[in-house]
Amino acid sequence: MKTVLIGCGNISRCHLDAINALDGVTLSAVADIRPARAEAAAETYRCRAYGDWREMLQKEQPDVVHICTPHDLHVEMAVTALEHGANVLCEKPAAISHASLLRLQRAQTDSGKQLGICFQNRYNAGVLEALRLMREGKPGRLVSIRANVDWCRGADYYSDDWHGIKAREGGGVLVNQAVHTLDLLQMFAFSPAVSVQAHIANDHLQGVIDEEDTALLRAVFRNGVMGQLHATTAFQSNARVEIDLFFEHDTLRLSGPVLQRLENDGTATTLAGVDTAAGSKAYWGTGHPALIADFYRCIRENVPFPIDAFEGGKAVELFLAAYRSAEQNGETVDVE
């Protein structure tokens, strides 16, 4: 398969390394509006460089397009690539408005091609084991979910031309950092969210960003499960993401990539996952290679990739509802 990538920023390295590790996949080109960045990536990964992504699509005619650009560009690029007959793997979020999400979903359906959204934390060993236990019914009925994202992002993080700008990023901590946890909340609920109540604030970066750095969200799902998320980038450290799953007979905790059972005596028993993640994301996990490999497997075997514009769009619907609630002083709103 012939592959290209748009956007040679930090996250692109996860994609490019994973592409290079796959058999039967050839990286033919990369594109970035900053020529020097595209040329540096092209030299490292031995492919062609473009400054114009549309020109790259036209000349390369790829089988697969990876999109690693600012959030406001995702839908336009993905729709165009699908119309060119390519499969598309896009970084999160799928979209930053309801209208653009519907456009992406229509384009996926009309194209007949695969479209994937990078919610790579679904591929962490702890998450996979929790899902297995739930499908087997061992912990009993799920009652509620509690999640915490406590990370640190200073002013320097927002020094580029899109982070911290709501028109481009779509939102703050809910869209950029905690969207992965929103995705897991709705995935574990095994039911659509029907209502959301939320409060948001900018606690430590007033005058630096025009979006929230702290949020509290409470979602009710159709099957009666209640999910709560507290997320902030105003913490002093990057703590492990923690998700507690409260069942009738058991309590499971995802602590970063590790799944634990919380015992009645206050101790925790590890059920799956090991602390092997390295580098700046060690506090959560490194699921990109597994997700990317699975995306190509689905293309080869002609089976649907599980996180498409519809499944990946559920987290978008949650954060959009959260913003509507916050605008109404925390009133409960329906999820569209």
Describe it for me?
The protein is α/β, with parallel strands linked by helices. The protein has two domains: 2-120, NAD(P)-binding Rossmann-like Domain (Rossmann fold, 3-Layer(aba) Sandwich), CATH 3.40.50; 122-283 and 309-334, 2-Layer Sandwich (Dihydrodipicolinate Reductase, domain 2), CATH 3.30.360. 33% of the residues lie in helices and 25% in strands. The protein contains eleven helices and 15 strands. The strands form two sheets. It has a nine-stranded mixed beta sheet, with helices on one face. Strand 5 (87-91), helix 5 (98-111) and strand 6 form a beta-alpha-beta unit. The longest helix is centred in the last third of the chain and has 15 residues, at 313-327. The protein is globular, with a radius of gyration of 20 Å. It starts with a strand and ends with a strand. The model has no long low-confidence stretch (mean pLDDT 94).
Descriptive key words:
336 residues; single chain; six-stranded parallel sheet; 25% strand; nine-stranded mixed sheet; Dihydrodipicolinate Reductase, domain 2; Rossmann fold; alpha/beta; 15 strands; 33% helix; 2 domains
List the helices and strands and how they pair.
Elements: E1 2-6, H1 12-20, E2 26-31, H2 35-45, E3 48-50, H3 53-60, E4 64-67, H4 74-83, E5 87-91, H5 98-111, E6 115-118, H6 125-136, E7 142-150, H7 166-169, H8 173-176, H9 179-189, E8 193-201, E9 214-221, E10 226-232, E11 242-247, E12 251-255, E13 258-262, E14 268-272, H10 288-301, H11 313-327, E15 333-334
